[in-house]
Amino acid sequence: MTVDGGEVVDGKVHLHVTLAGEDIVVAGHLHRATVRDFFVRAYVSPLRTER
Question: What is the pLDDT of residues 28-44, one digit of tens each?
Fold first, then answer.
């Protein structure tokens, strides 16, 4: 999963992501994710810090 951007709207995290698996790539808004019998690694990095 690659986070392509996002923001916090009304206190809720809104992520734009790219997901890839066997023979498929999907991009769009992540509403929820369920991990069953496969491995997932997700990285989330801040775009900027408030000073």
Answer: 776 777 778 777 776 66
Q: Judge whether 46 and 5 are in contact, CB under 8 Å.
A: no
CB neighbours of 12 closer than 8 A, spacing ≥ 6?
none
d(CA 14, CA 26): 17
Rounded Cα distance between 40 and 22, Å, is: 13
Decide: pTM greater than 0.85: no
Q: Are 17 and 3 in contact, with CB atoms under 8 Å apart?
A: yes
CB–CB of 16/26 below 8 Å?
no
